[in-house]
């Protein structure tokens, strides 16, 4: 279990993280989301040990990151957003580098290289130079480098940026298999449907603060507001007078409801009694992206100065 | 450290640019200038060889700074430096692992250029131990300067420009292109503040005067002193380099 306790980090006068408190349970896939400049990358840098100076405490099963840095680093695999590979070397050489950096014995490195190449679907390209790889293959090798030392915790920073659907699917399958193995995953992405599909728990960060967190189903339930959209020439505000939480939306109206089926029944009865025939009637459920927008707003976040990166 | 050093060595062997700057270009310059000065100025071939082979060896050894700057800035901007910082490798191991292969390349460069001088121009060598000590000192100072430049430079272009100033300016003022005795007094005094001058003086003492370690201790001390100053500067600026590394 990872406990992030009261973590603060500033860059000059800019406060990148403010009193961040999060708990990531062992064996879960935790989604870390937020707009650009929200503080995600700073938190990730702290978790992977790149940033060593911060206030507060991060604990991995009661061992503090401050005092057990090297031991903890051995248990973490980091997949950075940028592809960090040596392009002039082969896939094997790149994996070998990380095997050596994590101090794996020689015999084990060769075995692990084979296993990881099979896991990421690149066993046929072991001896190919990385510069000949497609973007998706490089992404998968980038993930492979983080898996070579068989870490318990894998931190993935936007691992599917710029990949084709086939590679994305392969990466998803890999993540599902890592989940089955009981690995703890921390997954950051701007693709909300990915996070919703892959993660069991989620934390939203905005302006350096955790604005919402918890198990995925609980967060979705907390912000679960189904809405019914209705449109038609005869459908007016007067016709829908009896319905609370009514909003004009485009050419029609939307009715927010916690009991959408009941509301639909009421609507049908109301239309029948008033002899109104709607032309369009739709039921929609709130998705993670709606929650993200609701929590973080719609304004552009191009001015954030997250990290020194 | 070994993992990084092995990686760097592997990369170096595949870097055609480095081979060109380190071995081919110096050979072209040595042959070109010995031919040019020999024919047009009628200088004694032995004097020319003794000035030009060690002189251009010293000058081109400083060109390793370009490769060091490029390697460090590429690591910083590609995310590799930060990626490596997330592994259990100690920060100083990364620094040393990147640095030592460049020292090896410069030592190999010196061996190749001197061997070329001996085989093609009958360059006399003198005391091997003194030559070796001077070569280690030269490799130390050239790569040390490169390390300082690499962690201090904001951009690759800035690093390369400063390298050119140090390599070419040092060569001109340090008497690598022509003996310092032919230069004005002011320039001769300036030369004494440059490692290039001391490296060449040391080599000349060994080659021309059969000097030993006792005769070149001053040159060695200056080279090592400069090297220590540069590496200290690089180590002081290194944390900032890591902070600025993209991740």
Features:
heterodimer, A: alpha/beta, six-stranded mixed sheet, 14 strands, elongated, disordered C terminus, B: 247 residues, mainly alpha, 81% helix
Summary, kept brief:
The complex is a heterodimer of chains A (309) and B (247). Chain A has helices spanning 40-48, 69-74, 91-101, 106-119, 135-147, 165-180, 192-198, 216-222, 260-274, 288-296, and strands at 2-11, 14-24, 29-33, 55-60, 63-64, 76-79, 153-157, 184-188, 201-206, 209-215, 226-231, 246-249, 252-257, 280-284. With 309 residues, chain A is α/β, with parallel strands linked by helices.
Overview of this protein structure:
The complex is a heterodimer of chains A (309) and B (247). By secondary structure, chain A is an alpha/beta fold. Chain A has ten helices and 14 strands. In chain A, strand 12 and strand 13 (252-257) form a beta hairpin. In chain A, helix 3 runs parallel beside helix 5 (135-147) and helix 5 (135-147) packs parallel to helix 6. Chain B has 247 residues and is an all-alpha fold. Chain B contains eleven helices and no strands. Classes of the chains: A alpha/beta (309), B mainly alpha (247).
Q: Number of helical runs of chain A?
A: 10
Number of helices of chain B: 11
Coarse morphology of chain B: elongated
Largest sheet of chain A: 6 strands, mixed
Strand order of the largest sheet of chain A: 6-7-8-3-9-10
Indicate the topology.
The complex is a heterodimer of chains A (309) and B (247).
Chain A: E1 2-11, E2 14-24, E3 29-33, H1 40-48, E4 55-60, E5 63-64, H2 69-74, E6 76-79, H3 91-101, H4 106-119, H5 135-147, E7 153-157, H6 165-180, E8 184-188, H7 192-198, E9 201-206, E10 209-215, H8 216-222, E11 226-231, E12 246-249, E13 252-257, H9 260-274, E14 280-284, H10 288-296
Parallel strand pairs in A: 3-8, 3-9, 6-7, 7-8
Antiparallel strand pairs in A: 1-2, 1-4, 4-5, 9-10, 11-13, 11-14, 12-13
Helix pairs in contact in A: 3-4, 3-5, 5-6
Chain B: H1 2-14, H2 16-40, H3 45-61, H4 64-78, H5 80-85, H6 91-121, H7 128-152, H8 156-173, H9 185-191, H10 195-209, H11 217-244
Helix pairs in contact in B: 1-6, 2-3, 2-6, 3-6, 3-8, 3-10, 4-6, 4-7, 4-8, 6-7, 7-8, 7-10, 7-11, 10-11
């Amino acid at each position: 279990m990872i406990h992030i306790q009261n973590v603060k980090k500033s860059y000059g006068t800019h406060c990148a993280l403010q009193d961040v408190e999060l708990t990531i349970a062992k064996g879960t896939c935790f989604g870390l989301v937020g707009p650009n400049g929200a503080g995600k990358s700073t938190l990730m840098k702290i978790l992977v040990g790149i940033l060593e100076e911060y206030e507060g405490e991060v604990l991995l099963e009661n061992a503090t990151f401050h005092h057990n840095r090297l031991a903890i680093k051995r248990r973490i695999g980091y997949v950075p957003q940028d592809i960090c590979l040596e392009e002039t070397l082969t896939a094997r050489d790149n994996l070998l580098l990380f095997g050596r950096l994590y101090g794996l014995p020689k015999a084990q490195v060769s075995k692990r290289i084979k296993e990881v190449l099979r896991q990421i679907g690149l066993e046929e390209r072991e001896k190919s130079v990385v510069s000949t790889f497609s973007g998706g293959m490089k992404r998968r090798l980038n993930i492979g480098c983080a898996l070579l030392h068989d870490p318990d915790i894998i931190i993935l920073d936007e691992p599917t940026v710029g990949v084709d659907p086939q590679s994305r699917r392969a990466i998803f399958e890999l993540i599902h298999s890592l989940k089955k193995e009981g690995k703890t995953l921390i997954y950051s992405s701007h693709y909300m449907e990915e996070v919703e599909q892959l993660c069991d728990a989620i934390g939203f960060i905005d302006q350096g603060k955790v604005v919402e967190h918890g198990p995925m189903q609980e967060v979705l339930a907390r912000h679960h507001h189904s809405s019914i959209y209705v449109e038609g020439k005869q459908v007016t505000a007067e016709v829908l007078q009896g319905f609370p939480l009514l909003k004009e939306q485009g050419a029609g109206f939307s009715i927010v409801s916690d009991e959408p089926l009941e509301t639909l029944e009421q609507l049908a009865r109301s239309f029948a009694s008033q002899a109104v025939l709607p032309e369009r009637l739709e039921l929609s459920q709130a998705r993670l992206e709606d929650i993200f927008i609701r929590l973080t707003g719609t304004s552009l976040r191009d001015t954030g100065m997250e990290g020194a990166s | 450290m070994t993992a990084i050093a092995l990686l760097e060595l592997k990369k170096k062997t595949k870097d055609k640019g480095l081979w060109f700057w380190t071995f081919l270009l110096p050979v072209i310059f040595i042959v070109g200038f010995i031919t040019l000065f020999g024919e047009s100025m009628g200088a004694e071939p032995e004097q020319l060889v003794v000035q030009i082979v060690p002189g251009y060896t010293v000058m081109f050894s400083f060109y390793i700074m370009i490769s060091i700057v490029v390697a460090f800035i590429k690591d910083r901007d590609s995310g590799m430096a930060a990626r490596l910082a997330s592994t259990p490798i100690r920060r100083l191991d990364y620094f040393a692992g990147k640095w030592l292969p460049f020292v090896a390349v410069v030592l190999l460069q010196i061996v190749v250029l001197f061997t070329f001088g001996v085989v093609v121009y009958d360059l006399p060598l003198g005391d091997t131990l003194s030559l070796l000590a001077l070569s280690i000192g030269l490799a130390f100072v050239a790569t040390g300067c490169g390390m300082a430049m690499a962690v201090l430079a904001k951009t690759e272009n800035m690093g390369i420009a400063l390298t050119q100033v140090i390599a070419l300016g040092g060569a001109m003022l340090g008497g690598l292109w022509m003996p310092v005795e032919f230069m004005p007094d002011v320039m001769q005094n300036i030369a004494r503040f440059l490692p290039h001058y001391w490296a060449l003086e040391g080599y000349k003492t060994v080659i021309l005067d059969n000097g030993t370690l006792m005769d070149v201790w001053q040159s060695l001390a200056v080279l090592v002193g400069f090297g220590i100053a540069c590496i200290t500067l690089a180590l002081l600026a290194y944390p900032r380099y890591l902070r600025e590394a993209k991740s």
